[in-house]
Sequence to fold (86 residues):
Amino acid sequence: MTNGTSRNNALLEKIRQANGGRSLFASAICFCGAMAMLGFANMLCRFGLNIDLTYLLPWMIGGTVLWLFVPPLILWLWTGTPSGKR
Fold:
């Protein structure tokens, strides 16, 4: 039978892997870059392909926020550091 602590450590290790060692500042820089790319893609689709993708942008922004900021937040609450380093 496994111990609850070993399960917590395994979950914490998976969250560390998903975070990739990024700090909150690095996540914020990545978010700015992702928003710039989404903006350029939206402009290309709107003016180049005549396709309106504004209904998808909130979902893509939400996914980006979840991917970039939830793992550091969990690590910060769990370990005390956003990067999860010991």
Residues 8 and 59 are 30 Å apart (CA to CA).
